[in-house]
Amino acid sequence: MNWRGTLLTAAALVWASCSAPLLKLPSGPGVPALDAMDVILAATAACRPVSAVSLEMSVSGSIAGGRVRGRLLAGLTRVGAVRLEAVAPAGQPVFFLTNGVGFVQPGATLLLPRDNRVLEGGQFDAVLQAVTGIPLDAPLLFLVLTGCVPSAPVGGNALGDDWRLVTAGSYDVYVHREKDGTWRLMATVTRGADSGWRAEYSSFQDGLPRSIRLVSVRSRAFDLTIALSQVELNPTLGDNVFRIQIPTSAKPIALDELKASGPLGTNGR
Questions:
Q1: Does 89 fall in a domain?
Q2: E strands along 163-246, which residues?
Q3: Could you point out which of 59, 181, 245, 246 has its C-alpha 20 to 30 Å from the C-alpha of 121?
Q4: What are the distances in angstroms from CA 269 to CA 4, 9, 62?
């Protein structure tokens, strides 16, 4: 398999049914909510103490119109260290993608072990987008997967008795009160950007989501459902977790090559 084929496999570990409708969120400006800050604190009480997480992700949906399904093993920290391993049904993993912080291979490193190609010192969000279509940087990926708010909340409105729309930087955060009185983070939506995205959360366990739907807002570049399992909170993730052993024979691959042959390139459509 050549490296283009590997990237297509990474982008299309394939199968998915037609997309289900998005969650119907309440509309309208609402009225100022004096309890907005208390509500968002309650809805994120479980995620805020989390500084690191290891988990398994089952991903299905579509990227650039192509249906996808795959499984990834992940370790992430709040400060931006990331390790993603795309597991294949048999043989070597499809890819390893890390983001190092401090002195541990700083920047993004992508290894395609089947083709012995490597990219080193890249920007994590650019590499992740080239391989998967998802434009998230490392700290933001951590916050999305743990159901935390991407930016500091500054206030919000009440949309009826049981919904709050909280403003947090360039994000709209929708929080819902369940029948038992628990406030749940239901969706985070970026505002006013073609490259924006929307995350919907469900299947909560101990206050944290176990299912996340991640959708590009306008371009429909991706529509993915991510089921989380084997979740371990605040594990000890040593520096070695975020360091990839790169074969001395590995040949470099440029970001432009990844973009051309990844899910959003002409070879990946």
A1: yes
A2: 163-168, 171-177, 183-190, 197-205, 208-216, 222-233
A3: 59
A4: 12, 12, 11
pLDDT surpassing 90 at residue 194: no
Tell me the average pLDDT across 210-235: 92
pLDDT digit string (tens) for 226-240? 999 999 999 999 989
Q: Is residue 266 part of a domain?
A: no
Is residue 203 in some structural domain? yes
- Give the residue numbers spanning the domain of 44: 3-258
Q: Residue 249 sits in a domain of what CATH number?
A: 2.50.20.10
Q: Could you give the number of structural domains in the chain?
A: 1
- Which of the two residues, 81 and 221, has the higher pLDDT score? 81
How many Cβ atoms sit within 10 Å of the Cβ of residue 24? Answer: 6
Per-residue pLDDT tens digits for 139-151? 999 999 999 999 9
Q: Tokens 């950007």, residue? A: 193
Structure pTM?
A: 0.89
Residue 233: how many other CB atoms lie within 10 Å: 16
DSSP element (H, E) containing 142: helix 138-146
* 117 falls within a domain: yes
